[in-house]
Amino acid sequence: MELPAQREPTRAWREISAQLRTILGASTYDIWLAPLIVHSWDGRVLTLGAPPGTHAWVPNRFGHIIATCARAVAGEHVRVAFAGAAQPDARHPQAPTPELENAFNPRYSFDQFIIGEGNRLAHAGSLAVAELPGQAYNPLFLYAPPGLGKTHLLHAIGNYVSAFGGGASVRYTTVESFTNHFIAALSSRSLERFKYAYRAVDVLLIDDVQFLASKAKTEEEFFHTFNALYETGRQLVLTCDRMPQQLASVQERLRERFESGLVAEIRPPDLATRVAILRKRVALDRVDLADPAALCLIAERVPDNIRALEGALIRVVANHSLTGHPIDVDLAASVLDTIYPAQQTPAVSIDMIQQSVASHYRVTVAELLSSRRSAHIAWPRQIAIHLARELTDGSLHAIGKAFGNRNHATVVHACKRVSERLISDPGLLQELEQVTSLLRDPHSDRSN
Questions:
Q1: pTM for this one?
Q2: Taking residues 354-358, what's their average pLDDT?
Q3: Which of 189, 258, 269, 401 has a CA 20 to 30 Å removed from the CA of 288?
């Protein structure tokens, strides 16, 4: 098997990054390790570079785990070094100061955010805040379960204000980091410096405010920080995993302030949005797909979490890099079967598919099986063949025989046509969902 050391640096680093993201979690990886770049890679020494704000801290905090993953991927002989930084010393870790938390992930931009019905309000509110800080919605409170894009929107605001804000200052932090900095400031008697770091900015972005619960001193400081910014017309954006009124352990006066601006929910993306997210990621990473239908399979298997959705794609791409197998439906299924197994559904027969397709498209089963090639019959026939290939265990020969004794090449052509249309026509996903709904409930024809 070809070792990563024999490939170009970006492919080797991609495999190492996939392991790091799995071990550390997407949030930690995206904030601290995604900005790393490969300076050099000779098969024995991997030299990385970090942004100026974090180049002294990242090696100390993550150097050991990066080296471990590099050795696991490329062999025990591999060593990791950091350009322009001292080697990690676990005995003297250096915590980042508040000034180091402005390393916004460039991939988390508004351009890279896929808009769907579940996040449209949150996206619109975030963009309005980025364009007019302190004037549109203040505070902006985004709530959703983990992994649905809250941190992406925070970084998108930060990137936008940094680029187009006319010199406005912006800071991102998590409640955990805010708490740690506050405790460190108390112990080092540098509270004024701490207050200035958070209260002198024009836009403050705060992630995971649910962790304020049961931290009385931190809550008190956070309350005063909130007031200091709000009363001077500066923008606050907060994220949480639940609505403000559900934060039972947080002081009521803070909950009231959280609700005083725009409260926007982010809901899990529908299938079409999930496929669009995967397409965007594939285009961004220049992933070579052998069969675009692989993205549909991944989107079907991972329905509720964007972070897990992208993680599933990374697993498939990493497996492709390691084995050389093309990225198609078979590879995606084999990689995801253990972690995200296909939902158990009642057995579907080719006859059932023909009946459902005929009902939906207002044709007869006899017409689907006929030799007629008019468009209003040919397209439903191709849909039915595609679904028979996807939903049954029938061989190409068996499927062709069930559709009027058509040959192997005709079945392959039909499946290819539908796969190509899925990429160019997002509405086709909903069309297929309507057809397959008839397989579950013959009386649920939604085409009316």
A1: 0.58
A2: 91
A3: 269
